[in-house]
Design goal:
319 residues; mainly alpha; 0% strand; globular
């Protein structure tokens, strides 16, 4: 597998060429802004229907272009249910119930802590002292974020976003077990799984009348939102991220994922008018720093496998 990584001209081991640096930052920006796009989309669609449409458009027509699945169907179905149905269903519902876009982009990063915990339970990957310290710092950041959200925010929405992060951690462990050789191929096939379960849940919990009203009222903004969350964050985002990981060590590419909540909070403040209090910035520093520490040892010691565990927040398996 290492022979497939071709270092670009003008860059040494672990160093990204300027064009590749720009691409990694662009993907992080796309995934961060995605939380604002989700917030806009929730004004047009019920959350479960919105999530179903996201996966439907991400899967079609891409599923006919990426070739046959390169891993066993049990992994595609497992990740599709945990990541697509559980994680995105909880995230979209949590945001619909009032979890702010910027805060959601930040809180979701605690998935790295859940990933380390579930990897220890399922794969016997014992966390080192640095990872344990990172988990403690990240959890402290969650506590600060919860205090910042306070009584004025939605406790239920906040809790659902944390639950979504836990589901993301489970899907990361499943993805590691699957070890897909092609991240884009894997994500496109995974996107085929959640569509029908999410549509069924939407009809059951949100009601056919609400779903039909949303579909009948589809306008250019609603269509643009679906295109962004499906093709831009999933097809382009995962395609570009996978392309970078095939050419550079994961430890060189992964740190750019820590920019996602920065772009998420900044774009939410710019486009949605969400305030960013000093307490929330404190939570951001703790969470991002904790996630970096939690991920550090895993990337350094298990470089070839780390590609499937690198946090990819938007969007996505991104939001």
């Amino acid at each position: 597998m290492r022979s497939s990584r071709v270092a670009p001209a003008g860059s040494g081991p672990g160093r990204l060429a300027p064009a590749h640096l720009a691409l990694a930052a662009l993907v992080a920006a796309v995934w961060g802004v995605n939380f604002v796009v989700i917030e806009i989309g929730l004004d047009h669609f019920p959350p479960l229907l919105f999530s179903a449409l996201r996966f439907l458009v991400a899967a079609l027509p891409a599923v006919f272009l990426v070739g046959r699945p390169k891993v066993a169907w049990k992994w595609i179905v497992g990740v599709g249910l945990v990541l697509g149905v559980a994680k995105f269903g909880l995230l979209f519902t949590g945001m619909d119930l009032g979890a702010p876009a910027g805060l959601s982009s930040l809180v979701l990063q605690v998935q790295a802590v859940f990933t380390a915990l579930f990897a220890f339970a399922a794969l016997d990957e014992r966390p080192g002292r640095l990872q344990l310290a990172g988990m403690a710092v990240a959890l402290a950041g969650i506590g600060v974020a919860a205090v910042d959200e306070g009584a004025a925010g939605s406790a239920t929405g906040f809790a659902l976003v944390i639950a979504a992060a836990a589901c993301w951690g489970v899907s990361n462990v499943l993805t590691r077990k699957a070890a897909p050789p092609d991240a884009l191929n894997f994500m496109v096939w995974v996107s085929t799984v959640p569509v029908l379960p999410l549509l069924a849940l939407s009809l059951l919990l949100e009601g056919p009348e609400r779903d039909l009203a949303a579909l009948r009222g589809l306008d250019w903004t609603g269509a643009g939102v679906i295109v962004y969350v499906a093709w831009i964050t999933t097809v382009f985002g995962f395609g570009a991220w996978g392309w970078l990981l095939r050419r550079h060590p994961a430890s060189s590419v992964a740190p750019f994922s820590l920019l996602v909540p920065v772009f998420g909070m900044s774009s939410a403040a710019l486009f949605l008018g969400e305030g960013v209090s000093p307490l929330r910035w404190c939570a951001a520093v703790l969470l991002v720093g904790g996630v970096a520490l939690t991920s550090l040892r895993r990337k350094a010691v298990r470089e070839p496998e780390a590609r499937v565990l690198v946090p990819t927040p938007n969007g996505g398996a991104t939001p």
